[in-house]
Amino acid sequence: MASSASKNSLLLSKIATNEKHGENSPYFNGWKAYDQNPFHPTENPEGVIQMGLAENQLSFDLVEEWIRKNPKASFCTAEGVEKFRSVANFQDYHGFPEFRQAIATFMSKARGGRVTFDPDRVVMSGGATGANELVMFCLADPGDAFLIPSPYYPAYYRDLGWRTGVQIVPVDCDSSNNFKITKEAVEAAYEKAKNNNIKVKGLIITNPSNPLGTTLDKDTLESLVTFINQKNIHLVCDEIYAATVFSSPKYTCITQVIQDMDCNPNLIHIVYSLSKDMGFPGLRVGIVYSYNDDVVNIGRKMSSFGLVSSQTQHMLASMLSDEDFVEKFLATSSKRLAKRHRVFTKGLEEVGISYLKSNAGLFCWMDLRRLLKDQTLDGEMVLWRVIVNEVKLNVSPGSSFKCVEPGWFRVCFANMDDDTVEVALKRIRALVGQEKKAQEQAQVKSTKKRWQSNLRLSFSSSTRRFEQEGVSVKSPHMMSPHSPMPHTPFVRAIT
Amino acid sequence: MRMLSRNATFNSHGQDSSYFLGWQEYEKNPYHEVHNTNGIIQMGLAENQLCFDLLESWLAKNPEAAAFKKNGESIFAELALFQDYHGLPAFKKAMVDFMAEIRGNKVTFDPNHLVLTAGATSANETFIFCLADPGEAVLIPTPYYPGFDRDLKWRTGVEIVPIHCTNSNGFQITETALEEAYQEAEKCNLRVKGVLVTNPSNPLGTTMTRNELYLLLSFVEDKGIHLISDEIYSGTAFSSPSFISVMEVLKDRNCDENSEVWQRVHVVYSLSKDLGLPGFRVGAIYSNDDMVVAAATKMSSFGLVSSQTQHLLSAMLSDKKLTKNYIAENHKRLKQRQKNLVSGLQKAGISCLNGNAGLFCWVDMRHLLRSNTFEAEMELWKKIVYEVHLNISPGSSCHCTEPGWFRVCFANLPERTLDLAMQRLKAFVGEYYNVPEVNGRSQSSHLSHSRGQSLTKWVSRLSFDDRCPIHGR
Question: Is A276 annotated as catalytic?
Answer without folding.
Answer: yes
